[in-house]
Task: inverse folding
């Protein structure tokens, strides 16, 4: 797992430089997504995160929360998750995009 993250951090900047994304969409809490979010953050590419703020009680939760902190645009899946994102989000750099009542 750790080696995969390292390889991803070496290779993803090449891909991002080639693609020149306006924003990177990161879904959920897999360690691979932490690699994507870290590379994008270090390259000053805005990050949109789906499922941030969810609470699971596993290692995935720590990864998810790290991604949430790196992200600029949040798509939480529930009111509870929205509240977690709002509590962590920097008002100057983050936006919540959620109507959890759906």
Result:
């Amino acid at each position: 797992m750790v080696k995969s993250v390292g390889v991803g951090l070496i290779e993803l900047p090449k891909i991002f430089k080639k693609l020149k994304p306006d924003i990177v969409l990161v879904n959920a809490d897999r360690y691979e997504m932490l690699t994507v979010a870290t590379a994008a953050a270090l390259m000053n590419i805005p990050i949109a995160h789906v499922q941030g703020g969810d609470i699971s009680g596993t290692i995935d939760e720590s990864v998810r929360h790290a991604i949430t902190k790196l992200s600029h645009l949040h798509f939480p899946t529930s009111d509870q998750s929205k509240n977690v994102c709002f509590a962590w989000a920097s008002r100057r750099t983050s936006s919540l995009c959620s109507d959890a009542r759906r």
In short: The two ends are 36 Å apart (CA to CA).
